[in-house]
Amino acid sequence: MTNRPPARSAPRPSTPRRASVRLAGLLTGLALGAAVLAGCSSEGASTDCGLDACTVTFDRGVDARASILGVEARLVEAQDDVVTIEVGGEQLSLTVGQQAADVGGLAVTLDSVTDSEVRVRIARNPG
What we know:
Blueprint (H helix, E strand, L loop, with lengths): L15 H23 L2 E3 L1 E5 L3 E7 L5 E4 L2 E9 L2 E6 L2 E6 L5 E3 L2 E8 L3 E8 L3
């Protein structure tokens, strides 16, 4: 007669419901973590932030400002295709297609200008 160890039961596979609950919890945690790290808030503007960059859409005709990446950005003026914004206390005049302006370790680019809004991208400079 051969001595065999007692048979072990196979581990229970994770049910689809458990896996989807875990995935939902993970995604919620990541989204909340990104929002906290980016630290975005706005007034008269909307923000779309990641860890190292934010797109800020300012409403024209109002006192529009946003606090992103540790600095305040404010729409000062928009005339034709030239936009003046203030980022971290420094004023910049930007045009669409212009190379990014450097302000305190941030790269600021004007994405678009319409009659109703101004869209700016603000990103941390690598390095």
